[in-house]
Amino acid sequence: QVQLVESGGGLVQAGDSLRLSCAASGRTFSTYAVGWFRQAPAKEREFVAAISGSGSTIYYATSVKGRFTISRDNAKITVYLQMNSLKPEDTAVYYCATEDEPRYYKDYSDHQRYHYWGQGTQVTVSS
């Protein structure tokens, strides 16, 4: 069983930065893609960013491209989401997720690619 634990959320002002962490345990980490998703109140879950197991492939949602950076440290079994120039519309619960097996046939932005999910961390950006 894989456990994912997100941390680093908080309350910030517009224009500030936060770095989210997703710590994994329970198995080898470097083989599997990791995605970040977010869900705001009364909205559907949306894709934010994803990174392949090796870190060589990265995707971002259009809404965060140029402001957010995803990275991973496989030695530390952790994936990071650096969020800069935060906006009030970034307010949401942020979740990280990873695969149970490599699912190359699914898009990185497809939540169905991911089997294990963390409990989420709240990010609130005030204007």
Structural class: mainly beta
**Helix content percent band:** under 10%
Low-confidence stretches: none
Order of helices and strands: EEEEEEEEEEE
Strand percentage lies at over 45%
The major sheet is characterized as:
7 strands, mixed
Mean pLDDT, all residues: 95
Gyration radius from CA atoms, angstroms: 14 Å
Helix run count: 0
N-to-C CA distance: 40 Å
Number of strands: 11
Q: Give the overall shape, derived from the CA principal axes.
A: globular
> Assembly type of the shown chains?
single chain
Give a brief rundown of this model.
With about 130 residues, the chain is mostly beta strands. The protein contains no helices and eleven strands. The strands form two sheets. Strands 2, 4, 5, 6, 9, 10 and 11 form a seven-stranded mixed beta sheet that branches.
Overview of the structural elements:
- The strands form two sheets. Strands 2, 4, 5, 6, 9, 10 and 11 form a seven-stranded mixed sheet that branches.
- With 127 residues, the chain is mainly β.
- The mean pLDDT is 95.
- It has strands at residues 3-7, 10-13, 18-25, 34-39, 46-51, 58-60, 68-73, 78-83, 92-98, 116-117, 121-126.
